[in-house]
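Sequence and structure are kept together here, with a separate record for every protein. An example record follows, reproduced without changes.
>
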Amino acid sequence: MILINLLPHRELARKRAKDAYNVMLVLAAVAGVLLAGAIYMGYRTAIDLQQSRNIFLAAKNKDLDKEIKDVADLQSEITSLKARQQAVESLQTNRNLPVYLLNDMVRLLPDGMYLNGIKQEDASVLLTGVAQSQGRVSELLRNLSSGNSQWISQPDLIEIKADQVALSARDQRSVYSFAVRVRLGRPDEAASARAAAKTKGGA
């Protein structure tokens, strides 16, 4: 027996294909929405995590800034204390400089000459006196520049001139009046000044 399908099978096939296509579209749209939602949630989670990290880092930075400020304040206080200590040491040393100067002058002053004036202005000291000869003045300059004194440096002859000294009403003696300027300072300063003078002299 032969069965003949008189229904419009092509239209039914097209309808089935169209329905399947629509179902696929809906499924694809749903899958796209789900995928987009998953991606959004993933990004959102990452952003929230990064924001929490940023908040944590900002809090730590504030703590570090506070510690840095404390360290800076401490360093400033240490610097201030060191400056005060150096000022006290400098005052202590400067108070004793005249004693060191007189002590060294007793050692370095050659025989046949004497000082009649010592005038200090800051670190500069003007020595004035009388010598039997010019050689005595040269010897004094050599003694002052030889490094035998820790406190005196940079001797500079200001003037030397022939003069007369009255030993008595009838006795006068020919002498040489001189003026020498020296620098008075601590041992490290005097050593630096002598080294600079030698370098300048060598150049």
Observations:
- Helices lie at 9-108, 134-145, 187-202.
- The longest strand covers residues 152-166.
- The mean pLDDT is 83.
